[in-house]
Automatic annotation (TrEMBL):
The keyword Disulfide bond applies. Residues 41-75 form the LRRNT domain. This is Keratocan. Belongs to the small leucine-rich proteoglycan (SLRP) family. SLRP class II subfamily. It comes from the Eukaryota. Its main location: secreted. Residues 1-20 form the signal peptide. Pfam families: LRR_6 (PF13516), LRR_8 (PF13855), LRRNT (PF01462). Keywords: Disulfide bond, Extracellular matrix, Glycoprotein, Leucine-rich repeat, Proteoglycan, Repeat, Secreted, Signal. PROSITE patterns: LRR. It is found in: Secreted, Extracellular space, Extracellular matrix. The keyword Secreted applies.
Amino acid sequence: MATTICFIIWVLFVTDTVWTRSVRQVYEASDPEDWTMHDFDCPRECFCPPSFPTALYCENRGLKEIPAIPSRIWYLYLENNLIETIPEKPFENATQLRWINLNKNKITNYGIEKGALSQLKKLLFLFLEDNELEEVPSPLPRSLEQLQLARNKVSRIPQGTFSNLENLTLLDLQHNKLLDNAFQRDTFKGLKNLMQLNMAKNALRNMPPRLPANTMQLFLDNNSIEGIPENYFNVIPKVAFLRLNHNKLSDAGLPSSGFNVSSILDLQLSHNRLTKVPKISAHLQHLHLDHNKIRNVNVSVICPSTPTTLPVEDSFSYGPHLRYLRLDGNEIKPPIPMDLMTCFRLLQAVII
């Protein structure tokens, strides 16, 4: 039980690191010297709460243009409007901006003036979901830590787009129009601190090449990926959470070592075309294999090897760590093989 609690705490820590490392910085109290009462102007199209002087709320107002942003503003909310362009002029005085939410507008790449975003030297979060973008916008400020581009029409990533974004920890490109030809070997060059990469719901048939080395969370659900190259995970030695649900993976498309990668703790392969359980690492804790074409579980093949010199009582600590196994929606008939429980002694839930 203590081990399970520790794992849950670790998972929460890893996930929160991606999402909240910068949030703690963003929500620090602003220096009173950064703004004064005579600077407390407010665009008539927006709302400026007196209790939150660094925020500007302009969402849901049918705006077609971005108003002039006061110099004191850190947080700018412009979602759910009719904005088509991002010019430089409204941001001339907005040197303190940390957060911009432009979700659910009508912004195109042609509508973004070249220096409009890169001039925001302190920007950490940029939300451009549900717009009309056809490629990842560039140039972007070097300070950026999270870039959210879900549900656009992105099919291109211009060369060098990420070359200066060494502070980026999260990149969300889910639900776009990415094909394999969108990626070059150096596409992700420069993303030295990227931890979470989401490219679910695109049109990929192959795994993207040369991912950033620090990637810990890789989400590729709902593509058409058919196989994984041999030694693919060597370039991302820290990957811990891997989602490949709803793809076209088959046994022939997996390398001989399967997913025997010591860093992977949570592996999701639901809704694919697998007929057998792939090899896994002894460190793996959660395995989702539901809705494949698996007929039986050959424990002698999938059971990770453990040192034979270990005393029986130590096999719980040094043996396989698998705690959750999902196999429903396959062609397996109960009962569960007893040697499965013998191998994976820490199993707490098996769905079959």
